[in-house]
Amino acid sequence: MSYETIQFGIRDGIATLILNRPDVMNALNSKMRAEVTEALTTLPEEVRCVVMTGSGRAFCSGQDLTDRAAAADLEGTLRKEYEPMLRAVTGCRAPVIAAVNGVAAGAGANLALVADVVIAAESASFIQAFTRIGLVPDAGGTFAIPRSVGAARAMGMMLFAEPVSARQAADWGMIWEALPDADFAEGVAARARKLADGPTAAYLSIRQLVAASTQNDMDAQLALEAKMQGQAGRSADFVEGVTAFLEKRKAVFTGR
């Protein structure tokens, strides 16, 4: 499918989604939000991992401030356009890697941070820039960031609106890893390949379990673990995994 604001392609089970408005640092407008949502909710069966990144020198600079229709109704835009996009990421049937190649600011940072795994180039940074223009963090930032770095660091990020380097974000536990720029593309490709070759049905259950853990008490979480482990234990991937282990060979998972 042809898109105007993103590039989207599939190769060997890995889908690559590139935010592609480099002249405005990949700022999010209505068209881009719709296209990201559509791409992630209409994945063909062959896709077993998604890599989301940006073109040019930025991952995403956040909301396009020249989009006057969005500015005129921020609440409506968040409910009608941002929420479906964010849910398309968190509800994607394949694991999503956010490959943060440069600055990720405002809603652009929070779009990255709702991905399953965030890998950043060391030159990248994350900025909760909202207070610079008199706004509050949105696009899931107030949900995701306190849960990953704690309330004190989340408050500092949001109140001061100062950049957090990729290395600092990794040290804080906000992202999975920060890679030297020279190793970034190769490192992301290796991580994506590992996920695409893995037990993708089990990955989906893990994502659901981790999401549920923020709401469940211990008893509810244990019950959900048992249920999902029972499902995993009936899968072809479990049979293959055990067989490969006993035969001392690499497992060939199908995601079933």
Could you characterize what this model shows?
It holds the Pfam family ECH_1. The protein is of the alpha/beta class and 256 residues long. The chain folds into two domains: 6-196, Alpha-Beta Complex (2-enoyl-CoA Hydratase, Chain A, domain 1), CATH 3.90.226; 200-246, Lyase 2-enoyl-coa Hydratase, Chain  A, domain 2 (Orthogonal Bundle), CATH 1.10.12. It is 48% helix and 16% strand. It is built from eleven helices and ten strands. The strands form two sheets. It has a six-stranded mixed beta sheet, with helices on both faces. Strands 4-6-8-9 form a four-stranded mixed beta sheet. A hairpin with a 2-residue loop joins strand 1 and strand 2. It starts with 5 loop residues before the first strand and ends in a 10-residue tail after the last helix. 40% of the residues are buried.
How large, in whole angstroms, is the Cα Rg? 19 Å
- N-end to C-end Cα span: 27 Å
Q: Major beta sheet, specifics?
A: 6 strands, mixed
Helices and strands, in order, run as EEHEEHHEEHEEHHEHEHHHH
* The first-level CATH class name of the largest domain: Alpha Beta
Name of the CATH superfamily of the largest domain: 2-enoyl-CoA Hydratase, Chain A, domain 1
Q: What fraction of the residues are assigned to beta strands by DSSP? A: 15-25%
Under the CATH scheme, which architecture of the largest domain would be assigned? Answer: Alpha-Beta Complex
Q: Under CATH, the topology of the largest domain is which?
A: 2-enoyl-CoA Hydratase, Chain A, domain 1
Which structural category do the helix and sheet elements fall into? alpha/beta
Number of strands: 10
Provide the residue-averaged pLDDT: 95
Q: Name the overall outline.
A: globular
Helix count equals 11
Q: What share of residues is helical?
A: 40-55%
InterPro entries: ClpP/crotonase-like_dom_sf (IPR029045), Enoyl-CoA_hyd/isom_CS (IPR018376), Enoyl-CoA_hydra/iso (IPR001753), Enoyl-CoA_hydra_C (IPR014748)
Protein name: Enoyl-CoA hydratase/isomerase family protein
Family: Belongs to the enoyl-CoA hydratase/isomerase family.
Organism: Paracoccus caeni
